[in-house]
Specification:
β3, α1 and β4 form a beta-alpha-beta unit. It contains eleven helices and ten strands. The chain has an eight-stranded parallel beta sheet with strand order 3-4-5-6-7-8-9-10. The protein has a two-stranded antiparallel ribbon with strand order 1-2. It is α/β, with parallel strands linked by helices and 280 residues long. α1 packs parallel to α10.
Length: 280
């Protein structure tokens, strides 16, 4: 990994700079109390923070992930401070507020950096609560999420019509590029930060290229692995603020983190990557 600092992008609503590689906790952090299981997860978090990454994304939907993340972060040195993102995944105002309080307790955070409405569940109700909690200082940023491409039209409509939404989180990868035309133009015109989840398609991208050599030309943008190629493709989209590959494997975390350093593909190189992928 180059010695320079990790690349950052600004959150449009405030100008705050955020490192471009974060961490998703879905599945990987839904574990029990066994130290043998938790040890590699602690190392994943340490590697992320030591490399300059900050965003750690979770949800009540992810089983024990919030609690495990909170426990492990409490065991690490206090600096640098992570940027904690989680979600509301329930219906009703009172249940939503209570779930947010519980998430803050599990993550051991007095303030949640980003609270997101998971898969747009009861979004109108929760958006009103989030605006109030942001005004009161309990959360710093408001976001909405959805994991399916079928929800893109609704995401775009909400972003275009509702003020004070700071983030949108959606699935975006070399294999799933619909967001490029269906959501990202709206994001660009309304000043919303983008978190790209499932940028490696839960490992499916690697199965497609298994046994194939990495093209020599990827070194032109400081790329040394297929994981870095897949992540750098997404990061080269200027509206993307951060990617959050989910992993519990320290070696995978090291590889993912390297994508946040050095050059990114330019427009010509991105087209070259698309053509490589589409050729099968």
């Amino acid at each position: 990994m180059p010695a320079a600092a990790m690349l950052t992008r600004q959150i449009p609503s405030t100008g705050e700079a955020i490192p471009v590689i974060g961490l998703g906790t879905w599945r990987a952090f839904d574990v029990g109390a066994d130290e043998r299981v938790r040890r590699p997860l602690r190392e994943v978090l340490r590697l992320l923070l030591d490399a300059g990454g900050r965003i750690i994304d979770s949800s009540p939907m992810y089983g024990c992930a919030e609690a495990v993340t909170g426990d492990l972060l409490a065991e690490l040195p206090g600096e640098p401070r992570p940027f904690l993102a989680t979600k509301i995944w329930t219906t009703g105002r009172e249940r939503g507020v209570e779930q947010m309080r519980r998430s803050a307790q599990l993550l051991r955070a007095e303030v949640i950096d980003l609270m997101q409405i998971h898969n747009l569940v009861d979004w109108r109700t929760h958006l009103a609560s989030l605006r109030r909690l942001k005004d009161e200082g309990h959360i710093r940023y408001i976001g909405i999420t959805h994991y399916t491409t079928g929800a893109h039209p609704e995401l775009a409509r909400i972003l275009a019509s509702e003020p004070a939404i700071d983030f949108v989180q959606l699935g975006y990868s070399l294999a799933t590029r619909a967001a490029e035309t269906e959501v990202l133009p709206v994001v660009a015109s309304h000043g919303v930060a983008v978190i790209a989840n499932q940028p490696l398609e839960r490992g499916d991208l690697f199965r497609r290229v298994c046994g194939r050599p990495l093209p020599d030309w990827v070194s032109d943008f400081d790329c040394a692995s297929w994981a870095q190629l897949f992540l750098k493709y997404v990061l080269a989209e200027p509206t993307v603020t951060c990617v959050i590959p989910a992993t519990g494997n320290p070696e995978h975390m090291k590889d993912d983190l390297a994508a946040g350093f050095g050059r990114l593909p330019d427009a010509r190189q991105r087209q070259q990557i698309r053509e490589l992928w589409d050729a099968g």
